[in-house]
Structures are given as structure tokens and as C-alpha cells.
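One example given next:
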Amino acid sequence: MSAKKRVNAGGASTAPAEAPAAAPVEVKDLNPVTTEFEFMGPYLGSLGVSFGLPVLVWAASYYCNNIGWPSIPKALPTLADVRACFSLEALAVYVGWWAFQAALYMLVPGDVIDGTQLRDGKVLKYRINGEWRSGR
């Protein structure tokens, strides 16, 4: 980028201040080894969101009534109750949607950009084609 010349109220030009040269940063400083985990760690947290949230949403739809969530559920759902909420058609739509998204990722054109530098110095490439995929 080129620096623009500034003019103050009196008409005199002022040169923009130059930033001091940055010291070189080592890879280990950019991406240090993780020592603490948030959200219950890398496995429990992701499993909780992936499996616990759908169970919570299903329980909310099963146990809620016209006045809200009862304070204490009277009984656990039976296997027949769980099976009544499952649909092969819904599963097919869900799997089809993910397959469609995977096909769009592979087939729709998009820019390939570099990601963040990893601990070992490698840089992963990412295809950015979300605008095409979202239909905008």
C-alpha cells in the first residue's frame, strides 16, 4: 500500500509516521502448544455438543407440554416412544443434505487460500466457495 500525503488545517503537508520494524516472530510463538483446554477438553466438549444437544432437544420436545417443562418427569420414555420420533425419511433427507454439501464443496469453483501456520511450519489450504454454495 502506498502512504497518502496528509494536509493539516494550515495547508502544510505532513508525512505519515512510519511504523517501527517488527522483530521476526518464531513459529513456536505464533502457535504455542496447548496446555489448557476450554469447554471440557477436546473430546468431552465436542462429544457433548454432538450427542448431548440432540438428546436435550429431543427431551425438550418430548417432556414439554402446553405450560412448559414439568418440574420432574413422571417417567422415562419407552423404546416405542423413541422409535415413534425416528423416521427413515428424515434420516434420508439429513444424509442427502450432507452429501449435497460435500458435492458442492468438491464441484463449485472457489478461491484456495492459505490457513494459519501450524506448529510444524506447514500451512493448510482451504477452498473458499461459501458465497456460491449459499446461492447469493
